[in-house]
Amino acid sequence: MGTTIGTIARLFFRRPAQWGAAALLIAAVCCSSPSELTLKKDELLTCAATGAMDGRPGAVVVMDVRTGRIRAMVQEETAVGWAFPPGSLVKLVTAWKGIEEGSFGPETRFVCSGSALLSGIQYQCWYPPGHGDLDLVHAIAYSCNLYFLSLGDRIGPDSTYRALAELGFGKKTGINLPGEEAGRLDPPAEGLGRRYLIGDTDAVTATPVQVITYLSALVNGGSVWVPTVTDTAGEIAAFSPKLARRIDVSRAGPVIVKGMRDAASYGTATNAAVEGHEIMGKTGTGSLLGAPWATHAWFLGFAPAESPEIAVVVFLYRGMGGRDAAPVAREVFRAYFDEDGVP
Fold this sequence. Notes:
Beta-lactamase, alpha+beta, 6-stranded mixed sheet
């Protein structure tokens, strides 16, 4: 995204009171290099994220999904140095691996009635009335627990474990910052059963940087980039993307994208939506380590939905994904789509 001639024209012809601002904007465009303009936009994204967090403990990371370049990071220590259970974000990984292995497909349907007895264990959905009859796209959009738990008849927790390992969970991303935490990736413990499929376990923990780096591959065509921080215009100009590995998302990618687009349209991620623009996202709510009665909040989203350029991950130490983390991402998306500011 960048400042356009149309933006300048609007200032001159539709906003006479802002002719002075338009002149300054022209000067900024004419006198700034592309990397300087990009840096200014990155600073706006950082300001938007900082304001939306409002001092709450957690982190926000914004990344270019096409290259791995970090465009904004708020509360760096938490973003790279603290790992937490990613909760329902793991459902995306279960969906990816199951489709690619042929265990199930987008047409696979289950009925969520709010609770179900599966393999002799009573499970509850986060939505007590139940989501009704669902296919996979709607299950992603609504983040239906019982749908993904029911997939345990077709895909075991070991498959989700292997999929997480293939993406890189349990290993450092290689970001050029000190103090990076590797997180945890333990095999499914005996007795955990289907809960591994939906991330309802502390056997999997990840930093916000790991979440945005590894899960972006599910929507960017399968590229896992090495995340790279660029603090100056010179570093931006010299930046060269580093590909860590590629994964196959040829069958699952479009299904996951559709589910996340629908989540932002009518599902759990509507609080991240920006009027006039289409984004996609997935919420997550996980138990706090050592405090299962409390929850932390995740949101992972991408924009524009049609051809993603940026990813935004929000982590809040206390809260729920759709209610608390998604609105933070909305402010970042607004700043990204805003063409009236310096890019």
